[in-house]
Write a structure and sequence with these properties.
mainly alpha; globular
Length: about 270
Amino acid sequence: QKWVNREISNFDYLIQLNTMAGRTYNDLAQYPVFPWILRDYTSEELDLNNPAVFRDLSKPIGVVNEKNAKTVKDKYENFEDPLGMIDKFHYGTHYSNAAGVMHYLIRVEPFTTLHIQLQSGRFDCADRQFHSVPATWQALMDNPNDVKELIPEFFYFPEFLENQNGFNLGQLQISKEMVNDVVLPKWAHSPEDFIYKHRKALESEYVSAHLHEWIDLIFGYKQRGPAAVEALNVFYYCTYEGAVDLDALTDEKERKALEGMINNFGQTPCQL
């Protein structure tokens, strides 16, 4: 009610929903999830009065680019599990998982160390690092298998965009550029400026009017069941609350494997 009356910000509302749905900063597998809200990362100026600069919040990030919708639909319709255990799904990866959180926060500890542990003791290759905001968005548009949403830090924490610790993150294969600070959109003149404008975009009139559409997909009625199928919003079965009864698994190995999968793969928030 407070949110509807505009007594709390969109940011606060999203944090509260995340908390109610079991998300927490203390668990990388269930880190708070925030939406990509813009799609203009190339203009010199960001015009928040122009609806065209915003992402379509009514669609899962995997199909914001119309071109990917057919691939995603076909994958779902043609999926057949010979053992009959795995339900059909649109996405084999998730919009929020531990590796994704470390991907974004690689320049800040303790996430740097956690990332290195995940990659068997070294940094992942430079081309796969989070090195540019525009390039990350472009990759999402080109690849229906990349469905990462954002983390709250994109709206308040400029330091994660800077390589203040001077880590050697390697060089990009094609341009031979060293990966250092994150490359920002042209309209952002510094990490602080990016955060300021990005947060302003989150609180803008357009987002306030459409945010509920994204909330339906992540936390609400389009999260599962027929509404999720129609919205092209079905994820691999293991990600859903209650999909697997771990206590019923007697085989210790199988149980460990499933636990690992759930932890690394990402979890869908509890349905609110």
